[in-house]
């Protein structure tokens, strides 16, 4: 029944003004939806079963890759409605983590509903309808569903209502309902979000169509989600080889005796005199014949012996964009970013903050958040739309950003960056709900659907990306290889060891380093505001789109040594590797090169023993993936008497970048140069819970890096 229900959905959505329907669903019935709703050919689907992906029936992978199983691929097509109007149907690709596609679809729909070519965001939810098809075990079982439902009424995330359909088989693989949920109905979770629930018997064809009409009428009237609990059964096993009677023998005995819905409805129409029995049988025979013919044609094509061409990911570098911005533009932009309306009363404690930004350009004291603000503002001037969301991003977790001012008298909000006179595109800015999985999945979907937009998601602390690991693993880092899909999505993950405990130290850099392969992502850990400025602008402007993961700082946000001058922003570009600016002696004297990344650099060069270590140079690896091989070779070669290269990090040995960097440094170490590791030893937890223990360990790491133990 899902297919005719979707047919009715397309008709009603088109009549209401929609130009697109975006669908997210797991595996059950997916091939039927691909064939009969999206319009993908039988031959293309059957080719997946024959294992012949070399046939030119499906161009899923424009950049090559390893592909995915048939039940995970997405597709798009245009359907003609009964009135002759065309409506686009998009089925989003998804992994076997069934419900994690939910927020991705919402993000894709939101992106297509939004117009970003003026300073004021225009959002029209009538033009795109999101449809999510859930499983009855997965809907109450997976927490990302609740996180997604919570987005429906939030200003930065609403899509004007989603149509939810639970394909209720009364079974989850081999698990009975009383083993998979604590509620009477699979749909009861939606009650907590004031979502109307329509229960309907999947054997009652006309009631199912009526349920669609009711749900979409509710969406049109109230702009909120509606849910249909489509109660039916699974006639066959979980997959093509499964025997369901092993675990549900009585249920499957009943199912074998129960006529399918096609026969039930055909008999009903025959009884009403609307069709004859022969006509009903002929219709079924014709469809089976079409599938059989497509299969025969496919086998004939395979027998011709078409050879598979080797496909590789496109790893060619894009031309470097110009990321420097003129001093005149930066000064003008800086002043605009501090303007508030006449009569607006800013908080008294923000006045010194604003004054520092006013004088910081000329005093060479541009801090991290200041450079970030200038990078975004300059991109808006160049016509690049930006969307920034996350936990407390308007102010910033560390009270460093203050993109939005609040009038202390009226509570009115004003964001200067959203009111730049020269900007003709949007800066969409939202504090997110306290969610990681759905919030990040939403931004991934948005960035996939709006490739011209720089979409950024910020975690309150980098550690919290743990809760979105499925989105990272199954979408962000692998979608290019699986589905040929990539984005500019940028993750900002506060990272650094300041003794704040194990849950406020690590953005889990090691996981992103392990996931980096085939040029799929970019991973950076910058040490200066200027580097961050150029990195953000590069990410927005470079032709080749890839997700970017940035280990952003905490203590460096206000560290006087970690500031930049205006010249650093209006000259140069992002540098993957930085040499040692604290080196006072001759390069010929250097025998020990310490390589590190991020905040630990300042701990090393700021240590009291540093002035007495003229034989030590401290280099910074700012771009951790892709591996900066050429730049590191050049840095090592610039020290002719080098004897030792050290990789120094704050993180434990089984975390951070150590494992990846160690193996790759081994490829390029000059002859007779030895390698050393300095950092925490193997640990089960990222960092110490006691500040005294942290200080002792940090001191040991710094002294070991300098070789003064």
Shape: globular
Gyration radius, in Å: 29 Å
CA-CA gap between termini: 73 Å
> What would CATH call the class of the largest domain?
Alpha Beta
Assembly type of the chains comes to single chain
Give the uncertain stretches in residue-range form: 53-60, 306-313
The level of helicity is: 25-40%
Structural class, by secondary structure, is alpha/beta
Number of helices: 24
Topology-level CATH name of the largest domain: Rossmann fold
Which strand order does the major sheet show? 2-3-1-6-7-9-8
Give the structure's gist in a few sentences.
The protein is of the alpha/beta class.
Give an account of the 3D structure:
- This protein folds into four domains: 2-57 and 69-243, 3-Layer(aba) Sandwich (Rossmann fold); 259-302, no CATH class; 327-570, Rossmann fold (3-Layer(aba) Sandwich); 577-706, Rossmann fold (3-Layer(aba) Sandwich), CATH 3.40.50.11610.
- The longest helix has 27 residues, at 277-303.
- The radius of gyration is 29 Å and the shape is globular.
- By secondary structure, it is α/β, with parallel strands linked by helices.
- It contains 24 helices and 23 strands.
- Helices cover 36% and strands 16% of the residues.
């Amino acid at each position: 029944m899902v297919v005719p229900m979707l047919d009715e959905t397309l008709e009603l959505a088109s009549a209401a003004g929609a130009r697109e329907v975006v669908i997210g669903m797991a595996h059950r019935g997916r091939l039927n939806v691909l064939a009969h709703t999206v319009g993908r050919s039988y031959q293309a689907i059957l080719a997946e079963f024959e294992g012949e992906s070399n046939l030119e029936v499906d161009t899923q992978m424009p950049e090559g890759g390893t592909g995915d199983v048939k039940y995970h691929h997405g597709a798009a097509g245009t359907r003609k409605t009964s009135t002759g109007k065309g409506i686009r149907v998009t089925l989003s690709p998804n992994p076997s983590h069934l419900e994690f596609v939910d927020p991705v679809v919402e993000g894709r729909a939101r992106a297509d509903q939004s117009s970003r070519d003026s300073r004021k965001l225009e959002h029209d939810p009538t033009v795109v309808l999101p449809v999510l098809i859930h499983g009855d075990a997965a809907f109450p079982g997976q927490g990302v569903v609740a996180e997604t439902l919570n987005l429906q009424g939030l200003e930065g995330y609403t899509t004007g209502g989603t149509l939810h359909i639970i394909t209720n088989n009364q079974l989850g693989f081999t698990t009975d309902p009383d083993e998979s949920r604590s509620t009477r109905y699979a749909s009861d979770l939606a009650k907590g979000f004031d979502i109307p629930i329509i229960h309907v018997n999947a054997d009652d064809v006309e009631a199912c169509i009526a349920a669609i009409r009711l749900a979409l009428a509710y969406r049109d009237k109230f702009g909120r989600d509606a849910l249909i609990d489509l109660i039916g059964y699974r006639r066959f096993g979980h997959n093509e080889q499964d025997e369901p009677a092993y675990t549900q023998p009585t249920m499957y005995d009943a199912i074998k005796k129960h006529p399918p819905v096609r026969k039930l409805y055909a008999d009903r129409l025959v009884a009403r005199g609307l069709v004859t029995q022969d006509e009903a049988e002929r219709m079924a025979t014709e469809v089976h014949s079409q599938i059989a013919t497509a299969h025969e044609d496919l086998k004939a094509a395979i027998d011709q012996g078409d050879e598979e061409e080797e496909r590789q990911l496109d790893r060619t570098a894009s031309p470097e964009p110009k990321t420097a911005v003129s001093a005149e533009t930066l000064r003008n932009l800086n002043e605009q970013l501090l303007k508030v309306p006449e009569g607006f009363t800013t908080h008294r404690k923000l006045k010194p903050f604003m004054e520092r930004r006013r004088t910081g350009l000329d005093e060479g004291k541009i801090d991290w958040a200041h450079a970030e603000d200038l990078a975004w503002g300059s991109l808006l001037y160049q016509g690049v739309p930006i969307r920034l969301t996350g936990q407390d991003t308007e102010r910033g977790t560390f009270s460093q950003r203050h993109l939005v001012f609040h009038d202390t008298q009226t509570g009115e909000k004003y964001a200067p960056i959203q009111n730049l006179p020269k900007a003709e595109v949007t800066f969409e800015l939202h504090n997110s709900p306290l969610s990681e999985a759905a919030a990040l999945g939403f931004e991934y979907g948005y960035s996939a659907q709006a490739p011209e937009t720089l979409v950024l998601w910020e975690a309150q602390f980098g550690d919290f990306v743990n809760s979105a690991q499925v989105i990272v693993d199954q979408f962000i880092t692998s979608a290019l290889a699986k589905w040929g899909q990539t984005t500019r999505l940028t993750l900002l993950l506060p990272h650094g060891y300041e003794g704040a405990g194990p849950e406020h130290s690590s953005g889990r850099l090691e996981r992103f380093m392990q996931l980096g392969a085939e040029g799929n992502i970019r991973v950076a850990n910058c040490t200066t505001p200027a580097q961050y400025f150029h990195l953000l602008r590069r990410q927005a402007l470079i032709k080749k789109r890839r997700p970017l993961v940035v280990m952003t700082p905490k203590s460096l946000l206000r560290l006087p040594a970690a500031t930049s001058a205006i010249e650093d922003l209006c000259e140069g570009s992002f540098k993957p590797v930085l040499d040692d600016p604290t080196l006072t002696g001759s390069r010929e004297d250097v025998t020990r090169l310490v390589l590190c990344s991020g905040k630990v650099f300042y701990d090393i060069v700021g240590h009291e023993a540093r002035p007495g270590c003229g034989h030590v140079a401290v280099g910074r690896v700012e771009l951790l993936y892709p591996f900066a091989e050429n730049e590191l070779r050049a840095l090592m070669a610039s020290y002719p008497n080098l004897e030792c290269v050290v990789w120094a990090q704050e993180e434990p040995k089984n975390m951070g970048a150590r494992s990846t960097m160690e193996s790759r440094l081994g490829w390029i170490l000059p002859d007779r140069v030895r390698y050393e590791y300095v950092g925490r030893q193997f640990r089960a937890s990222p960092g110490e819970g006691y500040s005294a223990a942290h200080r002792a360990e940090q001191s040991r790491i710094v002294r070991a890096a300098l070789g003064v133990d």
